[in-house]
Amino acid sequence: MIAYIIRRILYAIPILIGVNLLTFALFFFVNSPNDMARLHLGVKRVTPQAIAEWKAEHGYDQPLFYNAAAAGAGKLTHTLFFQRSVKLFVFDFGRSDDGRDIGSDIRQRMWPSLAIQVPTLVLGLAVCISMALMTVFFRGTYLDATGVVLAVVMMSISQLFYVIGGQYLFSKVLRLVPISGYDTGLSAIKFVILPIAVGIVSGIGLGVRLNRTFFLEESGKDYVRTARAKGLSEIRVLFRHVLKNAMIPILTGVVVVIPTLFTGSLILESFFGIPGLGSYLIDAIRAQDFGIVHVMVFLGSVLYIVGLILTDISYTLVDPRVRLG
Q: 211 vs 6, which has greater pLDDT?
């Protein structure tokens, strides 16, 4: 197990290097440091001196990959790529273009994102699995058909509809929760209830359809028919055999969601005014702040790779037949 984890971590290094190179190249090919200076100065006609001063102040006056004017190792270290990309591997995130410490911003903003995403993931997964098991238990009946139709309808509706509808009904009409905003401590509960509910409801359609497919596939296998032939009740078959063996594809789907636990939900945080990492990333994209965007892409890649490793490890817990060599 330990050897497998070490091997996967070593495999992740070239992947992260490739993501870093691609993000760095795309950003600077689309926007040169001169374009970034003009954007942040906010003046249509800026002098070359003002552009040069802005680049020097923010560290964009260095060469991209190779500094021929420097001596020794400085030819590689005194470059934008080293200063802005290589340091990410030791989690030195540097500063944004407006001078804020990116690491401090992330540590502060990750908690509102986690306050929304963790309950949404856990509760949403429990609701989707329960509803999918119910449709499988009553398969072939009107309840099953109704559940499938509702799931298709719900997954066909944009998340924006649930956001706007939830804000209108529960905030403006019923006045049960604030329409937007955030607070610290226990006071934050009233601000995150509605975003969590919207996140759960908007994911029910896809989650039920997907999990129902997994459960139906397992229900048709030989070991399930054997269990029924031995006289086990349908509920016991579903929970003891079908659910356990269907957890592998379910856990695989959870991997995709793991990065959003920290990076946040862009739509929910924007519409509900949550100061999390999702709104942090949107603001950085609008301002074309390369430092923040690059760090968030890097963190997303790291979290996705960590999620893959954790998922592989969890396979051994839900299915003893899986062994990691």
A: 211
